[in-house]
Design goal:
Layout (H helix, E strand, L loop, with lengths): L12 E6 L5 E6 L3 E8 L2 E8 H6 L7
Antiparallel strand pairs: 1-2, 3-4
């Protein structure tokens, strides 16, 4: 499953967990995605959208 927003394209970021002793291990920050029924080009589709796009009104939700 692709962890990418269908509207803005936001995806996972990578970095390191850093312990107090400065040991590092890889980690990922995943976007907060929700499956939403939205109207796209006049059709109702279920898409994965980040909560930032939902809050900003870039997605027209269908009831």
């Amino acid at each position: 499953m692709a962890k990418r927003c269908d509207i803005c394209g936001k995806g996972p970021l990578v970095g390191n967990n850093v312990s107090h002793a400065h040991n590092t291990s890889k980690r990922r920050w995943l976007p907060n995605l929700k499956k939403v029924r939205a109207r796209i080009d006049g059709h109702v589709r279920r898409i994965k959208v980040c909560t930032r796009c939902i809050r900003s009104g870039r997605v027209v939700k269908v009831v």
